[in-house]
């Protein structure tokens, strides 16, 4: 098929098929923008969320079809790749978008205080655009697409952080987010320009081939890679690029914080995994720089997890605490990135990718559940502080018991799914061969111990403290939603083994 | 000589702008100093033959983004001429850190080897500079090794190897009027890749030549070759140029920047190899439009109270 | 003398490096959010000079130029979002001094 008079053929159908999930959600965004013209204001917001949820679910199914089919299919002149890793993460990210839309229906659409604005069409357009960017991030194999994907994920996120524009905290959060994001993006671009100069290409695979044939990484390429790390580290809030995270989580609405805590970090971590795997890896003659890369990522992971957990100890605001907790969890997942592939393993079945995917899947549900409870308690009490949770076990057992499950899972204790995720990760680190990563297991265990304190503080407030406040009424829908999130958090432990086989 | 004068002129302007931005304590002046840097950068792009990027830099960056920034300055300060001064200690620390950074960066940059493509200059330019001053003269050994592995050489009039024979290399050889010949017996099998008028060869001719080469003499993916030929032989394919061969192969390596072809190839690239980011940008711009309009517009009074913190 | 008069890749790289450092310095020294944004623009221009110089002297392809065009478009989009956010912040606090955004302590 030819387009215009230019003798320009359209992209092949196979490329478009690989891109189907993104096309579906983009069409959903257009539908969401056009819907208000046909609806009254009162029905508009709920229906917008419902349409978004349906579109995102359809996109997740489309990505799932690719995952089931398997194989690695480069698309769009080698800018993107649709392999099992990218397909699985797109299922995760688009599925998460659907869940966020449902969460919004249950929590935000019922929030009625002066400072809350509900402009669903604008909000969901931004949400969808950011998700498309994250979908690009997990499937990019070209630095140009990496940059475009990160920007597409970031720019709508800045606007979403400040979406509660009547609130001072929201305005402040958005400003810090955009300033920090713009600076890291600029540094990333300078780094990318240096990499382009050294390797003469932006294709990640070709850069990897050049690195492998040279057997060493010149200093200027190291500078370029550090610049790239600034951009990706910003998305996953790795230390020292984490400063925005707690402020943005506190200032933005709970729904936005939930979205950023899971989707943005999952996309960034998967992207980092792909980049690190391309350049590192012990294929062939086990070049010395592979060990250095694993060590560097391990140190980054250690810093991120430890600093996140230590800072979380001091927090009284639950959103801030969960923000630091999300930094710490990004640190754990970074440990999985350090598990470089050995001898020609593909990225899709490697132990590191398996640990990363399982961790992100479990983290999605436990974080979504915990943030949902925070949102519901905030709706009733107007507070996100830990005092608002005092005596919750008596005041609203239907929220408190699932919340306790989520928190136990976030610590990583059996019998919750968080244990499976951590066990899989630590086991992979423990048995890793070419170089020893066992010290990371120690770091992980110490960090798990630290995290026990602040998560259990919430549990103690809920069940051991008493207040004179009356019971919090919880709608059947809200209770059902929270319990529905608790099911995978307990149930994933049962299907844990088959799940890792699946990938 | 003219190039040196122009370069130093634009570079001085760019640096003056940058230091003006850095040292100016008035935010309006800062924004205006940025204009100097943006304009000078556009001049440098023209100097580097990137005509289209230079034009975009002037139209979009200097003409659009900068005006947006100046509007932002005007809208967000009660007194636009308000001065703000950082503390002396901060300035000192920043100056030391930045100087150290420049020193380190420049040292590393000057001691690095950069990628040099197989062919970067036309034959005429090549002859003018002389081989020894050529930027990739030190890479000749690597190029030669590569060519040996592929059994073929592209040579200029002096018989100096110019690049590997891939489909991309051949197309570029055709474009630059270089010649291709199998290594070993230089005399009789030399195949000049330009037509009788001395013009670059068409894609058809090029592919015919390519096809005629024995398979062991070319390091070309047959599948790519077949798909290129199929695209060229389709009935509604009109004029066939090297760029269209490039497009048909989906190969960014054929979109060269030479002899004023850059702009044309950027157009072809946006509709071909770079179609995806080009389209994704439209999603980005939609989101930016919605987000910026939402944040900047005043709140509709009917939808609630006046807000303002909690 | 030849190095001075014969303009090559290194001349552009050094210029870009100085622009980059000036941009970073601007970001750290300016209190005004828009000042920081202007520093970002300097760094982006340094990246673009690099990209186009490498495109010209290195690959001889247009991929560097295409990337530079995307950088210009992304910079424009980023400026639009950032200025909308600054405007909103200004409407709340009547300043765009980043040090005044102190309710949230990171």
State the helix count of chain A: 20
The total of beta strands of chain A comes to 4
Query: How confident overall, as mean pLDDT of chain C?
Result: 88
Return the structural class of chain A.
Answer: mainly alpha
Kindly state the percentage of residues in helix of chain C.
over 70%
Quaternary state of this entry equals heterotrimer
* Secondary-structure element string of chain C: HHHH
CATH hierarchy: architecture of chain C: Orthogonal Bundle
Low-confidence stretches of chain C: none
Strand-and-helix sequence of chain A, N→C?
EEHHHEEHHHHHHHHHHHHHHHHH
In total, the number of strands of chain C is 0
Q: How many domain modules of chain A?
A: 1
Task: Walk me through the structure.
The complex is a heterotrimer of chains A (503), B (310) and C (106). By secondary structure, chain A is mostly helical. Chain A has one domain (19-502). Helix content of chain A is 73%, strand content 2%. With 310 residues, chain B is mainly α. Chain B has two domains: 2-81, NADH-ubiquinone/plastoquinone oxidoreductase chain 6, subunit NuoJ (Four Helix Bundle (Hemerythrin (Met), subunit A)), CATH 1.20.120.1200; 123-259, no CATH class. In chain B, 58% of the residues lie in helices and 4% in strands. Chain B has twelve helices and four strands. Chain B has helices at 2-23, 27-47, 51-75, 88-110, 123-129, 140-150, 167-175, 203-212, 222-233, 242-249, 262-271, 275-296; strands at 152-155, 161-163, 179-182, 191-192. Chain B has a four-stranded antiparallel sheet with strand order 2-1-3-4. The longest helix of chain B has 25 residues, at 51-75. The model of chain B is unreliable at 118-196, 199-204, 216-221, 231-250 and 301-310 (pLDDT under 50). With 106 residues, chain C is mainly α. Chain C is elongated. In chain C, helix 3 runs antiparallel to helix 4 (63-93). At the B-C interface, helix 1, helix 2, helix 3, helix 4 and helix 11 of B face helix 2, helix 3 and helix 4 of C.
What order do the helices and strands come in, and which of them pair?
The complex is a heterotrimer of chains A (503), B (310) and C (106).
Chain A: E1 2-3, E2 8-9, H1 13-18, H2 20-34, H3 41-69, E3 73-75, E4 80-82, H4 84-106, H5 120-139, H6 143-161, H7 168-199, H8 204-214, H9 219-236, H10 244-251, H11 254-279, H12 288-313, H13 318-337, H14 351-381, H15 392-395, H16 397-411, H17 417-431, H18 438-463, H19 476-491, H20 496-502
Antiparallel strand pairs in A: 1-2, 3-4
Helix pairs in contact in A: 2-3, 2-5, 3-4, 3-5, 4-5, 4-11, 4-14, 5-6, 5-11, 6-7, 6-11, 7-9, 7-10, 9-11, 10-13, 11-13, 11-14, 12-13, 12-18, 13-14, 13-17, 13-18, 14-16, 14-17, 14-19, 16-18, 16-19, 17-18
Chain B: H1 2-23, H2 27-47, H3 51-75, H4 88-110, H5 123-129, H6 140-150, E1 152-155, E2 161-163, H7 167-175, E3 179-182, E4 191-192, H8 203-212, H9 222-233, H10 242-249, H11 262-271, H12 275-296
Antiparallel strand pairs in B: 1-2, 1-3, 3-4
Chain C: H1 2-5, H2 9-29, H3 33-59, H4 63-93
Helix pairs in contact in C: 2-3, 3-4
């Amino acid at each position: 098929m030819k387009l215009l008079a230019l003798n320009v053929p359209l992209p092949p159908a196979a490329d478009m098929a690989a891109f189907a999930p993104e096309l579906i959600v983009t069409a959903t965004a257009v539908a969401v923008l056009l819907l208000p013209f046909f609806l009254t204001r009162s029905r508009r917001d709920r229906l917008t969320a419902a349409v978004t949820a349906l579109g995102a679910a359809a996109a997740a199914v489309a990505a799932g079809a690719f995952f089931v089919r398997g194989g690695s299919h480069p698309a769009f002149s080698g800018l993107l790749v649709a392999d099992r890793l990218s397909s699985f993460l797109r299922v995760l990210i688009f599925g998460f978008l659907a869940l966020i839309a449902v969460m919004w229906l249950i929590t935000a659409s019922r929030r009625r205080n002066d400072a809350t604005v509900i402009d669903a069409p604008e909000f969901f357009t931004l949400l969808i655009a950011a998700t498309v960017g994250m979908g690009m991030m997990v499937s990019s194999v070209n630095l140009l697409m990496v940059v475009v994907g990160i920007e597409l994920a970031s720019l709508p996120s800045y606007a979403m952080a400040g979406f509660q524009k009547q609130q001072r905290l929201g305005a402040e959060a958005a400003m810090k987010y955009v300033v920090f994001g713009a600076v890291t993006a600029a540094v990333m671009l300078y780094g990318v320009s240096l990499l382009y100069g050294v390797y003469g290409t932006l294709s990640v695979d070709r850069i990897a081939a050049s690195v492998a044939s040279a057997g060493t990484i010149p200093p200027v390429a190291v500078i370029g890679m550090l610049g790239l790390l600034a951009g990706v580290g910003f998305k996953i809030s790795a230390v020292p690029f984490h400063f925005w995270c707690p402020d943005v989580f506190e200032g933005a609405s709970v729904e936005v914080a939930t979205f950023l805590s899971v989707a943005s970090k999952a996309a960034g971590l998967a992207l980092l995994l792909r980049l690190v795997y391309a350049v590192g890896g012990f294929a062939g003659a086990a070049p010395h720089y592979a060990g250095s890369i694993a060590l560097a990522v391990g140190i980054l992971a250690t810093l991120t997890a430890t600093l996140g957990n230590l800072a979380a100890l001091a927090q009284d605001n639950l959103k801030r605490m969960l923000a630091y907790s999300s930094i710490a969890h990004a640190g754990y997942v970074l440990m999985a990135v350090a598990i470089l592939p050995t001898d020609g393993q593909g990225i899709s079945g490697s132990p590191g990718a398996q640990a990363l995917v399982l961790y992100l899947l479990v983290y999605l549900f436990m974080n979504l559940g915990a943030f949902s409870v925070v949102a519901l308690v905030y709706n009733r009490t107007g507070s996100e502080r830990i005092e608002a949770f005092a005596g919750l076990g008596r005041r609203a057992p239907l929220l408190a018991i699932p919340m306790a499950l989520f928190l136990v899972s976030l610590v990583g204790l059996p019998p919750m799914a968080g244990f499976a995720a951590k066990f899989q990760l630590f086991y992979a680190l423990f048995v890793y061969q070419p170089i020893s990563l066992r010290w990371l297991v120690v770091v992980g265990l110490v960090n798990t111990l630290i995290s026990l304190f602040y998560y259990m503080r919430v549990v103690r407030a809920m069940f051991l403290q008493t207040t004179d406040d009356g019971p919090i009424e919880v709608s059947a829908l809200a209770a059902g939603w929270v319990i529905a999130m608790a099911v995978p958090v307990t149930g994933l432990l049962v299907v844990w083994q088959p799940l890792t086989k699946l990938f | 000589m003219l190039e040196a004068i122009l370069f130093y002129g634009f570079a001085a302007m760019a640096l003056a702008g940058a230091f003006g931005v850095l040292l100016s304590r008035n935010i309006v002046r800062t924004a205006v100093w940025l204009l100097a840097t943006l304009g000078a950068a556009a001049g440098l792009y023209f100097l580097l033959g990137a005509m289209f990027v230079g034009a975009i830099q002037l139209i979009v960056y200097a003409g659009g983004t900068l005006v947006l920034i100046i509007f932002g300055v005007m809208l967000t300060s009660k007194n636009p001429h308000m001065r703000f001064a950082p503390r002396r200690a901060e300035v000192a620390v920043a100056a030391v850190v930045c100087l150290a950074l420049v020193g380190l960066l420049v040292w590393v940059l000057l001691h690095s080897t950069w990628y040099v493509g197989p062919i970067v200059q036309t034959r005429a330019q090549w002859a003018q500079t002389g081989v020894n001053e050529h930027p990739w003269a030190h890479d000749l050994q690597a190029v030669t090794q590569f060519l040996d592995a592929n059994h073929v050489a592209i040579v200029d009039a002096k018989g100096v190897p110019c690049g590997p024979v891939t489909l991309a290399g051949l197309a570029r050889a055709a474009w630059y009027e270089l010649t291709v010949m199998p290594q070993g017996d230089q005399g009789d099998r030399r195949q000049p890749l330009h037509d009788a008028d001395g013009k670059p060869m068409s894609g058809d001719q090029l592919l015919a030549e390519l096809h005629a080469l024995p398979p062991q003499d070319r390091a070309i993916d047959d599948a790519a070759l077949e798909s290129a030929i199929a695209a060229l032989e389709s009935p509604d394919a009109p004029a066939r140029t090297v760029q269209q061969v490039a497009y048909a192969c989906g190969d960014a390596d054929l979109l060269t920047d030479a002899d004023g072809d850059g702009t044309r190839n950027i157009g072809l690239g946006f509709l071909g190899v770079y179609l995806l980011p080009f389209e994704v940008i439209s999603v980005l711009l939609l989101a930016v439009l919605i987000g910026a309009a939402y944040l900047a517009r005043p709140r509709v009074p009917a939808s609630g109270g006046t807000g303002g913190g909690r | 003398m030849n190095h001075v008069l014969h303009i090559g890749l290194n001349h552009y790289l050094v210029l870009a490096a100085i622009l980059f450092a000036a941009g970073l310095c601007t970001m750290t020294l300016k209190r005004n959010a828009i000042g920081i944004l202007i520093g970002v623009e300097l760094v982006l221009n340094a990246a673009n000079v690099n990209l186009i110089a490498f495109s010209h002297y290195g690959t001889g392809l247009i991929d560097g130029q295409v990337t530079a065009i995307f950088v210009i478009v992304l910079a424009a989009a980023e400026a639009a979002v950032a200025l909308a956010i600054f405007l909103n912040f200004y409407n709340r606090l009547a300043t765009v001094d980043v040090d005044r955004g102190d309710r949230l302590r990171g």
